[in-house]
Amino acid sequence: MAKNKLEDFKESVSETVAKDILLEELEEQGHLVMVEDVIFWALEFYVQNYDKGKATSGKAVAYTIVERIKEQEQITLDKNRWSRE
Question: Mapped to the 3 state alphabet, what secondary structure does the chain carry?
Fold first, then answer.
């Protein structure tokens, strides 16, 4: 039982560290390419290429994020196209 708690703790710490680093990178933008673009491309690549033909929870999460971004970008483009400024 203690082993499961330890594994859970390690996993939660790892997720927190990853989240903190991603948020920091997004805020700093210290690279030649926008960090959010690289994350988007990586998620899109993952959806298209990881375990082709198999549904996984990771692919489902990645797909949902990619689709939300695409939908919101389209809404933004449509608003800009039809706005009267």
Answer: CHHHHHHHHHHHHHHHHHHHHHHHHHHHCCCCCCHHHHHHHHHHHHHHHCCCCCCCHHHHHHHHHHHHHHHHHHHHHHHHHHCCC
User: Is pTM, for the whole model, over 0.90?
Assistant: no
pLDDT tens per residue across all 85 residues of the chain: 456 776 766 677 667 888 899 999 999 999 999 999 999 999 999 999 988 888 899 999 999 999 999 999 998 888 777 766 5
Give the span between the Cα atoms of 40 and 34, in whole angstroms.
10
